[in-house]
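Supplementary Methods S3. Complex input for the adenosine-5'-triphosphate-bound model.
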Amino acid sequence: MAKTIAIVNQKGGVGKTTTAVNLAAALGLQKQKVLMVDIDPQGNCTSGFGIEKQNLEISSYEMLELVDIPERQTRLKKALADVKENYDYILLDCPPSLGLITLNALTASDTFLVPIQCEYYALEGLSQLLNTVKTIKRLYNPSIDLEGVVLTMFDNRLNLTQQVVAEVKKYFPNKVFETAIPRNVRLSSPLRENLSRRTRKGE
Ligand code: ATP
Ligand code: MG
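Predicted complex, serialized as structure tokens:
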């Protein structure tokens, strides 16, 4: 039975998709069966895997058409229930918002993983995220737990980075992964390589 992890932070551009794509690849290398679900309408994760979005006949968009559906928060959970036993991990790449799509992800997940960019305002909005999780926990998913916090775009040469790390560790005691992801242009290679491949192909 798969463990489902929502990769979530309503702040944009903090490394959710990069974390999702690389975590999926790393788990795959360890022979784990991974289902990567791109529930962000931006579709970066899909592109990150080299999939041409415009050629897809059906996507998570159809499954999540959320307008006027009763029990709108549990739609993803129900869809994943059918396939959960086929995988070891299900990763959900969330959009940068706390809207209904993210609520669906939090309702469907065993844990949530929060990438935090080592930048100004890193912690801004996090209390809102944690309050949202609290509500989801109370109403739909009592067992959801914080998987951990992963620091992204870490640059040890900057004083700011040290300050952000200290603040995040204070905010999430014992929940910050020891390994921080360095700021590294090549790290975002799945996305970038696809882009440059497309550019080379003239798309
Ligand atoms: P969104 O909120 O829009 O979905 P996101 O949180 O998924 O964004 P990413 O798309 O993973 O964030 O990353 C944002 C940008 O930062 C991308 O251009 C990505 O290539 C780049 N990036 C991510 N991680 C790193 C890193 N460790 N070093 C350098 N660049 C990175
Ligand atoms: Mg993203």
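The radius of gyration is 17 Å. The chain has a mean pLDDT of 90.
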